[in-house]
Recover the amino acids of this structure.
């Protein structure tokens, strides 16, 4: 029997590419859709090298309904879809809100419609801890009340979750789980794929690796006057390999459950908080490399602390993070050197 096909939108992106490999290794066939707006073909080559297989790739835009429908028609029986294709830069979303709403929300609606036409029922949605806004209590659980999202990007993730929930409630055959990622870091241990930030990276670890590599002169630590033990912000850094496994486990779970329509959301983090200063120290220690940094002002929209309660992932999916932050930072550096 052939492998079950899973559409992976944004499959050439940072998270999508690692998930495509995890799917292949779990016995599925990833069908990648990507428009390469924030990736490069070398990532597809990396996936091929790691799996030792050719990759099915449909190059195009998920905000194009006809294109998506054609992909599903061409592929025949598709068992599930994982939706990563979206804009993801928090800061940029303030400057281009309409582009963010159009692309992130439009592509989700088009994907669900294309899935319905081809009787594909299982959807794993790439969501974010940003849906919680600034929570009152930590660690944050899936039942924590959702506050105002702190950016147009965050709004799109809240709205997309609602859209999926309403679609499932309407009775259409759709089983879906939104995975709410905390802070994904690291790279495939082979250093054949990893994050490819175009231009100035926004996230902490790519800024650290680029500074260590001499691409950037220094890292600015955004604020050391927060209400945290060492006064720098605390986040829950989840390794990309662990995150990829969580997607496979979610798909297996969706395939197994009996309901015809359902929606749920699950946190994907480690449950541990690490401060910016701790990440910086761990990176330098584990890789034996120096990172120039200065202390700067707080960044607009940052909250002091955010980390996950991850009991639901363990209970429902049987998934738990395995990588230590040191391993993740080692792989991130290995990838930077390969670049
Ligand atoms: C982490 C910490 C910064 C850069 C964002 C999104 C979230 C998710 C992940 C998904 C913060 C500090 C950073 C720098 C620094 N995105 N920092 N200097 O803001 O927690 O989450 O990315 O697609 O939805 O909101 O992640 O990596 O930007 O920052 O001091 O140059 O590092 O202040 O405390 P964040 P981040």
């Amino acid at each position: 029997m052939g492998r079950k096909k899973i559409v992976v939108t944004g499959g050439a992106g940072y998270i999508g590419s690692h998930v495509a490999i995890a799917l292949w290794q779990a016995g599925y066939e990833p069908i990648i859709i990507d428009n390469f707006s924030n990736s490069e073909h070398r990532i597809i080559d990396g996936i091929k090298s790691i799996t030792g297989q050719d990759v099915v790739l449909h190059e195009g835009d998920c905000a194009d309904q006809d294109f998506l429908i054609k992909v599903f028609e061409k592929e025949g029986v598709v068992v599930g879809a994982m939706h990563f294709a979206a804009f993801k830069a928090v800061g940029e979303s303030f400057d281009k809100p309409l582009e963010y709403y159009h692309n992130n929300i439009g592509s989700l609606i088009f994907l669900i419609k294309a899935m319905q036409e081809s009787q594909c029922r299982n959807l794993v949605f790439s969501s974010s801890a940003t849906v919680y806004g600034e929570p009152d209590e930590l660690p944050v659980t899936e039942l924590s009340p959702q506050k105002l999202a702190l950016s147009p990007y965050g709004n799109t993730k809240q709205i997309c979750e609602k859209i999926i929930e309403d679609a499932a409630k309407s009775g259409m055959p759709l089983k879906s789980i939104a995975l709410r990622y905390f802070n994904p870091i690291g790279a495939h241990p082979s250093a054949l794929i990893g994050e490819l930030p175009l231009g100035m990276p926004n996230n902490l670890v790519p800024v650290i690796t680029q500074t260590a590599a001499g691409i950037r002169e220094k890292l600015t630590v955004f604020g050391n006057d927060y209400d945290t033990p060492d006064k720098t912000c605390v986040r829950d850094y989840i390794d990309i390999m662990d995150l990829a496994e969580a997607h496979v486990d979610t798909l297996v779970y969706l395939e197994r459950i009996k309901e015809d329509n359902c929606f749920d959301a699950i946190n994907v983090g480690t449950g541990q908080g690490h401060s910016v200063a701790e990440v910086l120290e761990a990176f330098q220690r584990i890789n034996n490399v120096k990172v120039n940094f200065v202390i700067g002002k707080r960044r607009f929209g940052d909250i002091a602390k955010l980390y996950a309660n991850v009991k639901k992932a363990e209970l429902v999916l049987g998934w738990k993070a395995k990588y230590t932050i040191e391993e993740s930072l080692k792989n991130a550096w290995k990838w930077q050197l390969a670049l």
About this structure: The pocket of WQD is lined by residues 88, 90, 128, 130, 183, 202-204, 207, 219-222, 233, 235, 276, 299, 302 (CB under 6 Å).
